[in-house]
Backbone:
């Protein structure tokens, strides 16, 4: 045991950890999902509810997972095993590993679409083209989507194979600043377009008419997904923290950066969508149908389109590496595999698992599971059931089994600016589990009954 602890890699700087965890958090969830959900749920009204969910639910769970990782220095399965010896709680860690596996398999497919659009924007987005049809054509083909999915999984596995410091930390230290700069360029372009003001007011003036139980549900679900919570990614990254790191501050940095980038993505997207007279409420197609149309119409659109899709692909890569790291850390810690072998093997298996979602839009488009195609089915189980369930069980474990008191003592072991005070206890013990139980019930009800 002792030997094993000494060998564990650690982030070599605090910034390295923050960027890695923020890189995990900032992803398709911020740039693809957050804007389209905001677009369909009343703009600023959704934003407000989302921010409340981030503070009351996201932050406490972030503190919990980071602490569990730091204290145990283990992957999610090992972390639960160590904190609750000889119990079945390690199964919650196992659920996390499975969730990471499933999310990555379709996340990589969507990231592959982004790579495709990145290349397409170089060759030029034609003004007036039917982008809905073009998107449909791309996803219903087989060769190209699988090709880009393969490239994306290859890049992900290559980073993970290189290790925590030489792989993950090095990648995020280069990629995160680039992402930030590209996003700033896009915001500048978007808000200076003629007619941008209407988009700004949509984004900033709340319309509570669209708000309902579904909004609450989406806000809480989005908080989990966007912060990479509920499946042990933060436990895993936390496990590479050295003992002298404070949790309250690190957790606040990660939550803050993720929220900042989601909000910035809205500023890059809505003013442009409105300036060109397009609909902000198109749903998942916002990024791949509406935005290419937006870029095709604006001056230097090919350039900005390219910038956008590079940024989207980078955000996806820094998240996908954290998903693969959960799976790899588990086999490395618990089954003594070599990191390289684990990264390659799991990369290939996850790639193969992602093929059915690709085929679901083409040759297998007859497949339906309660009205969902294959990708949506994976997405439903992973994001709407497994992630919240993992978050629920983690909160119950931390709040009631390990105890909230002990957890925050551990979080506060090293002094920082933010002290995790007694406000933490009722949140992790009651608010988080109850809120999540409600969203799981709503999700199950809407799909199977409603
Ligand atoms: N947070 C990532 C995003 O917003 C997705 C993710 C979920 C990554 C869970 C890791 C774990 O895109």
Residues:
């Amino acid at each position: 045991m002792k030997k094993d602890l000494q060998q564990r890699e650690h982030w070599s700087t605090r910034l390295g950890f923050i960027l890695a965890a923020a890189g995990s958090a900032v992803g398709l969830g911020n740039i693809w999902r957050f804007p389209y959900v905001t677009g369909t749920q009343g703009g600023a009204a959704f934003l407000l509810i989302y921010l409340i969910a981030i503070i009351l639910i996201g932050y406490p769970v972030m503190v919990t997972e980071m602490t569990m990782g730091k204290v145990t220095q283990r992957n999610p399965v090992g972390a639960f095993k160590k904190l609750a010896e000889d119990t079945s709680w390690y199964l919650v860690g196992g659920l996390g590993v499975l969730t990471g596996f499933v999310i990555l398999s379709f996340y990589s497919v969507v990231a592959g679409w982004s790579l495709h659009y990145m290349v397409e924007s170089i060759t030029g987005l034609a003004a007036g083209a039917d982008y809905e049809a073009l998107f449909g054509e791309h996803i219903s083909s087989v060769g190209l989507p699988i090709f880009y999915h393969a490239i994306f999984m290859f890049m992900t596995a290559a980073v993970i194979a290189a290790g925590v410091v030489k792989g993950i930390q090095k990648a995020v230290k280069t990629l995160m600043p680039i992402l930030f700069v590209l996003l700033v360029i896009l915001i500048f372009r978007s808000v200076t377009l003629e007619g941008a003001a209407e988009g700004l007011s949509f984004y900033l003036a709340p319309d509570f008419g669209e708000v309902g139980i579904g909004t609450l549900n989406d806000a809480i679900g989005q908080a989990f997904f966007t912060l990479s919570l509920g499946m042990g990614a933060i436990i895993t990254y936390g496990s590479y923290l050295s003992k002298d790191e404070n949790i309250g501050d690190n957790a606040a940095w990660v939550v803050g950066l993720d929220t900042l980038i989601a909000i910035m993505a809205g500023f890059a997207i809505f003013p442009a969508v409105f300036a060109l007279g397009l609909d902000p409420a198109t749903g998942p197609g916002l990024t791949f149908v509406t935005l290419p149309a937006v870029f095709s119409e604006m001056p230097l659109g090919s350039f900005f389109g390219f910038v956008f899709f590079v940024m989207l692909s980078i955000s996806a890569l820094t998240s996908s590496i954290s998903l693969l790291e959960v799976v790899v850390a588990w086999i490395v810690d618990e089954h003594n595999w070599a990191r390289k072998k684990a990264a390659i093997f799991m990369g290939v298996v996850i790639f193969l698992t992602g093929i059915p979602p690709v085929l679901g839009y083409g040759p297998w488009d007859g497949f339906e599971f309660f009205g969902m195609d294959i990708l949506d089915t994976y997405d439903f189980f992973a994001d709407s059931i497994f992630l919240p369930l993992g978050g629920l069980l983690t909160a119950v474990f931390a709040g009631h089994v390990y105890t909230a008191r002990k957890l925050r003592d551990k979080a506060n072991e090293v002094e920082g600016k933010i002290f995790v005070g007694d406000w933490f206890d009722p949140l992790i013990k009651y608010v988080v589990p109850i809120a999540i139980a409600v969203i799981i019930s709503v999700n199950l009800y809407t799909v199977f009954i409603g």
Summary: The chain has a mean pLDDT of 93. The first helix runs from residue 2 to 7. Residues 24-25, 27-30, 103, 225-226, 228, 231, 233, 319, 322-323 surround phenylalanine (CB under 6 Å). The radius of gyration is 21 Å.
